Amino acid sequence: GTHSLRLTLTRQLAEVLLRGYTGTKYMPPTSNGSGVIKKTMNASPWKPRMYTGHNLFIPKNEYEEIILLLLISEAMAGREAVLSQSPEFKEARMQALTNATAVYDLLTVALVRWGQVHLLHESLERALKFSYEEPHIWMQRALCLESMGLYVQALAVAKEVARMAP
Which of 32, 111, 135, 158 is most enclosed, with most CB atoms within 10 A? Predict the structure, then answer.
């Protein structure tokens, strides 16, 4: 379906915002506070509807917008993860890992830049379920633990990375 397209588009939008957005023109989403914004006769059919409610997060600045996009991308990448280590699933597993790694690399850049290392640690913990014997995500986790001051855990993970990729 459109799942992989949506994953790619949300990740690429976050990447565009992360790479070159200055923040001077950012306008947060707005609503009228009455639930669904009604369509007008002039509204484009391609313009998404906006919803309001108690459990909705509306970003206040470009940093929150980028993190939201990347966390949505992470959730979508996690849904397409192939956990089976069977040889017949190798290609699908590698494609899912490539997509997830791109998201985690962007999350690393964004969250470290804005001092949100604990949030990065949570994301990298979730990534371990589909990064079996894949040293890249494990090395990011080791570096994240080190930046959090968890040196003993970081060393243990770094030793595991050295075992994976001698």
Answer: 111
